[in-house]
C-alpha cells in the first residue's frame, strides 16, 4: 500500500527509526494521551500560578513534540519555555491555549494520515 503524505514527516521519522508505520502509530497514540494530560496539568498549574512546575511540563511537551517531528508544537512550547525561564509569565495562558489549539489540529491531521494508510489509532 502506498503511504499518504502529511504535514508532519511521519514517514521520515519511521524511516529514521527503522520501524514501520504500525509501530510508529503506537508512539503517536501514546503522545496524544500524554499531551492531553500535560495540557490539562498546564492549565491547572497556570491557574495556580505555579510557574516552576509549569515550566517542567512545558519542557516535557517540547521534548516529546520534537522527537515525533511535531515542530509547530515544539516551537511554540520552546518559546513559552524560554519565557517561563526568564520569569515572563504574563503570556503563559495564551501560550498554553496556542499549544492546545496546535495539538488539536495535529491530532486530527495525524489520525487522518494513519487512517488513510489503513491504520486506526
UniProtKB/TrEMBL annotation:
Residue numbers bearing the Phosphohistidine modification: 59
Name listed for the protein in its UniProt record: HPt domain-containing protein
InterPro entries reported in the protein's UniProt record: HPT_dom_sf (IPR036641), Sig_transdc_His_kin_Hpt_dom (IPR008207)
Protein's organism: Clostridium aciditolerans
GO BP annotations listed: phosphorelay signal transduction system
Sequence ranges assigned to domain HPt in this UniProt record: 20-113
Keywords: Phosphoprotein
Amino acid at each position: 500500500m502506498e503511504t499518504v503524505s502529511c504535514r508532519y514527516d511521519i514517514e521520515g521519522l519511521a524511516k529514521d527509526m527503522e520501524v514501520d508505520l504500525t509501530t510508529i502509530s503506537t508512539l503517536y497514540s501514546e503522545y496524544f494521551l500524554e499531551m492531553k494530560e500535560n495540557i490539562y496539568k498546564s492549565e491547572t498549574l497556570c491557574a495556580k500560578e505555579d510557574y516552576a512546575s509549569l515550566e517542567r511540563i512545558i519542557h516535557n511537551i517540547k521534548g516529546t513534540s520534537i522527537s515525533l517531528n511535531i515542530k509547530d508544537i515544539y516551537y511554540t512550547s520552546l518559546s513559552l519555555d524560554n519565557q517561563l525561564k526568564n520569569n515572563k509569565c504574563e503570556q503563559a495562558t495564551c501560550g498554553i491555549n496556542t499549544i492546545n489549539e496546535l495539538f488539536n489540529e495535529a491530532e486530527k491531521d495525524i489520525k487522518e494520515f494513519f487512517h488513510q494508510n489503513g491504520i486506526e489509532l
